[in-house]
Amino acid sequence: xxxxxxxxxxxxxxxxxxxxxxxxxxxxxxxxxxxxxxxxxxxxxxxxxxxxxxxxxxxxxxxxxxxxxxxxxxxxxxxxxxxxxxxxxxxxxxxxxxxxxxxxxxxxxxxxxxxxxxxxxxxxxxxxxxxxxxxxxxxxxxxxxxxxxxxxxxxxxxxxxxxxxxxxxxxxxxxxxxxxxxxxxxxxxxxxxxxxxxxxxxxxxxxxxxxxxxxxxxxxxxxxxxxxxxxxxxxxxxxxxxxxxxxxxxxxxxxxxxxxxxxxxxxxxxxxxxxxxxxxxxxxxxxxxxxxxxxxxxxxxxxxxxxxxxxxx
Length: 313
Ligand code: ATP
Description:
The protein has eleven helices and 14 strands. It is of the alpha/beta class. The strands form three sheets. A six-stranded mixed β-sheet has the order 6-7-8-3-9-10, sandwiched between helices. The longest helix is centred in the middle third of the chain and has 16 residues, at 169-184. The structure holds adenosine-5'-triphosphate. Adenosine-5'-triphosphate binds at residues 15, 18, 20, 38, 40-46, 312.
């Protein structure tokens, strides 16, 4: 990998006594787009805020283009942009006034501001809204404006906290294209998301967080191929929850990493049609009311379920 644009080394972040990020290390070079996933409370937002130098860290270090984010905030500020999950925008200004204000904060000339604002209003489908007051925008529009605000200074390192959450389906497709284009321009990007379905299409890397730790981190291919081609995750839905399902399933030969969560049962087993038939027959003979039975195709969702990552609370 080339020279990292962003480097986190053994970062710990506390909120009082709570250890929200626990010894997290990662490196991103230009052209790397990391999808950060994990359950609520895993520490994704805290990691992004610490990476942007907005939150003091208890130990470790964060470097952007070699500069320490806490020792050299001015240099880092020029090269790093963060869109928080709840962006702070100036509601009383129009969209255009807001972006001009931000552009002035970054020392952009009038000409640079006009050119860049035009570009981002076009790219983020806000042209019709240029004279609208920010407070009158919908949630998805505010999110797009927040991304425009982040990209206005043309940062090398871009951190986006759940940017697609409020976007409509067409907006998500366009947004994916935008991320892919930023990636191809050589920026280092982290996107936190709960929408796993399309992350594998545009991310180069995936990081799975749980309880403040980066449980798995690697290229999309490495994460997806984790179980090897011969095994896969089976997903079974029961018509109703069965109190002793776990005990009955202890007799399911050939299945490992069995988990029962209400009506959802998952386990790993050989990826083979005959094996699948035998497993289904066995489940029925154990008296379980199977309403769905599926061997999941290898993918991010399968890898995430397979990792057994649990809710923090
Ligand atoms: P989500 O997917 O819900 O956005 P997350 O992965 O971004 O979650 P964080 O917001 O980073 O998780 O929270 C990590 C932990 O830190 C959680 O236990 C949370 O309750 C705690 N936490 C977050 N912000 C604060 C705060 N300001 N003060 C105290 N604890 C906090």
